[in-house]
Amino acid sequence: MSEWANRPMALVASSTANGQEAEALLRSHYEFVPIEEADLIVALGGDGFMLYTLHRMLNRGRVCPVFGMNRGTVGFLMNEWREHGLVERVARARAFTVAPLEMTAETVSGAIIKHHAINEVSLLRETRQTAKIEVTVNNRVVLPELTCDGVLVATPAGSTAYNLSAQGPILPLSSKLVALTPISPFRPRRWRGALIPDSLNIGFRVLDAVKRPVSAVADQHEVRDVATVEVCVDRTDTLTLLFDPEHSLDDRIAAEQFTV
Q: 67 and 153 in one domain?
């Protein structure tokens, strides 16, 4: 038996028809406790719902392992949906620990707003004008002026999402790196991003923030009209995802490097 066996489980599901149907089926087979009493959470939905569930735990200050089953579309962070064998699957599951990013944004008006991100923190232009952004690493200026549609910082778990669509690198879970990836860069024209040790802080200062406004997005949480953004890895609240041994997250990330 693994350490995940016989733990009180809560069940959460997306509001879609597929999610609600799967929830009804599992509740007819297994006993679940309220989420406040659970030591493990079973999540039914897609990747977006998994991110919602993880953020919900971070916000309430009590983090439990999550075993997800795909009732959405891509389901990169989810296991295969099966109606039966849940207890046995959880007992055999492999655990993967993910440290989220913490974004601290200061707006043009002076407000300070913090959010966590499991996939990425992205800065995006708000108007038709390109953004102009100064980039620092550990308070050292590495790009005095990046002219672009935006720029993002992605975790290894999120490196196959928006980061990959922006031509960023795929990062193994064990890499201890984050990807710093530009979105449609104009100047410097040949800069295509960097790999940064996840122990370092990354900073952004929006140049001419009033004329060229920029928003900052931590997963689904958006902050408009930012002046500066600081991003670091937050190791105080690590997250644990559980996967079937034959279909684990590190294997999926590795396989993405050979997908054409």
A: no
